Amino acid sequence: MNSILRGWVNYFRIGNSSQAFSKVKFHVEHKVRRFMARRSRRKGFGWKRWSSETLYGAWGLFQDYQLAYVDAKARAGRTEP
After folding, report:
1. pTM over 0.70
2. Residue 81 falls within a domain, yes or no?
């Protein structure tokens, strides 16, 4: 799952996609927590049971949802003299 997330984020990183990134991040956290709750045969999503530090630190879930900004000069292919 991390490789798919990494590829998707790298593809859409350039542009105005911060709202989409926050929605995807929430959806992925939701699915991982639900999977772990079902795996441990518990009800709910485990919002209090598993912290974000556990998801991203101990379990290694992808978390680099940052935008990359490109200079207008670089887009136009110009370089400074």
Report:
1. no
2. no
